[in-house]
Give the backbone structure.
Amino acid sequence: GAGVSQTPSNKVTEKGKYVELRCDPISGHTALYWYRQSLGQGPEFLIYFQGTGAADDSGLPNDRFFAVRPEGSVSTLKIQRTERGDSAVYLCASSLRMRDNDSYEQYFGPGTRLTVT
Amino acid sequence: LAKTTQPISMDSYEGQEVNITCSHNNIATNDYITWYQQFPSQGPRFIIQGYKTKVTNEVASLFIPADRKSSTLSLPRVSLSDTAVYYCLGPKRRGGFKTIFGAGTRLFVKA
């Protein structure tokens, strides 16, 4: 079956503009995660969805970042008033479930490379 | 939140066994230990996960001592295609879902 897909693969935008990044998780995966990865660093957690709700958004850096998952499948990460420091690869991952005391395996998409000029 | 500590980089030659150790001193009783692999321009890929002692799959083995404060990922007979970054995941905050990757270990396999 299809894996996690992300669109666009590359996005170049000007400082101050608004961008949306899309993630299509694996069918049937109720858990969805967004990460941000800068060059030479590991992925940095942004937000976690269980179904339609954001169960943990503690990684969102500020209120310019927002994510939705209205029907419990596709998710959109939205960044307002982009800044040059937002330039990074944004990764999405999905899994069957995630419980506090259970194991999990996350399946990652290829990422969207965002460049803010 | 608790962090993990692992070597920044390692070099190896084809055919050798590679062991990457990760320290996770603050691991909680109910935390699993998970390792991911990442190639350039790709998202991370799950390798192996364990809770205690030893776990083996077709890709790697994971050794976890009794105190669970560290773990060792063992890659048998590496090839050039094993050149990648390997991440040991940090423990989750109890009741939370934040996944901590850390900087990872960059493994370079030479011919």
